[in-house]
Design brief:
Blueprint lengths: L1 H39 L4 H16 L2 H16 L7 E2 L2 E2 H27 L3 H9 L4 H31 L11 H12 L3 H27 L5
Antiparallel strand pairs: 1-2
Helix pairs in contact: 1-2, 1-4, 1-7, 1-8, 2-4, 3-4, 4-6, 5-6, 6-8, 7-8
Length: 223
């Protein structure tokens, strides 16, 4: 029991970083995903092409590779010293993690949003025009609320995946939960820290699933 208590305290400290990665990634990746989605659907060919290329590269390469590129890229490309770069209490390791995660997940969200928007019938746009809605009003008041309802299941899957992917921050030595679990398992010569970490991930995703299901039910009036 003492070993379990010590493990819980160690992993609880790392769990704060795991939640930070999760929260900041959602905060930045969802708006960026919407922006990339609009660019992907743009009638301006160069904008559409650039967004397609962005999505293709970010979805076609490993997130771990992207973490390394964001972290080591400034030094190898520009000889920039990132050791002293900080934003508030966060050092560049954590900042690079958020940048890489946000860029990666924005590509996936962009395609999810595009699928939702393109699933809307042309008749709704025509009806909005007849009723005097502008393009902006049509998008935000008619299309986006329905798209949000339609894409929620797919977004939920990505959010659940994000919780598990936070463990990849270990490659940059960010002190998130899996990093702490690995260190604890090595010092204790025990598999208990990994089991406890697994429980943390499972119950976090269980909570995410409950929340997303409640949001989906609350929007059922669009059906």
């Amino acid at each position: 029991m003492e070993l379990l208590r010590t493990t819980l305290l160690q992993l609880g400290d790392g769990f704060r970083f795991t939640l930070g990665i999760f929260a900041f990634t959602l905060l930045f990746s969802i708006p960026l995903g919407l922006l990339v989605c609009k660019g992907r659907m743009s009638k301006i060919k160069i904008v559409s092409l650039l967004c397609r290329l962005y999505i293709s590269i970010l979805r076609g390469t490993p997130l771990m590779l992207q973490l390394f590129l964001v972290y080591f890229g400034p030094y190898y490309l520009f000889k920039a010293n990132t050791a002293n770069v900080k934003i508030g209490p966060f050092d560049y390791r954590f900042i690079a993690t958020i940048i890489a995660f946000s860029l990666n997940y924005a590509a996936y969200f962009a395609e999810i949003f595009r699928g939702g928007i393109q699933s809307m019938s042309q008749g709704q746009y025509e009806a909005a025009t007849v009723l005097g809605f502008s393009r902006t009003q049509t998008y935000f008041k008619i299309i986006l609320p329905q798209v949000t309802k339609r894409v929620l299941p797919s977004v939920s899957n990505e959010v659940i995946t994000l919780v598990k992917d936070t463990s990849l921050a270990k490659v940059l030595s960010v002190a998130e939960m899996f990093t702490k679990a690995s260190a604890a398992a090595s010092s204790q010569v025990s598999v208990v820290p990994f089991i406890v970490a697994g429980a943390f991930y499972y119950f976090t995703n269980l909570l995410v699933e409950v929340i997303m299901n409640r949001i989906e039910k609350s929007m059922s009036y669009y059906s």
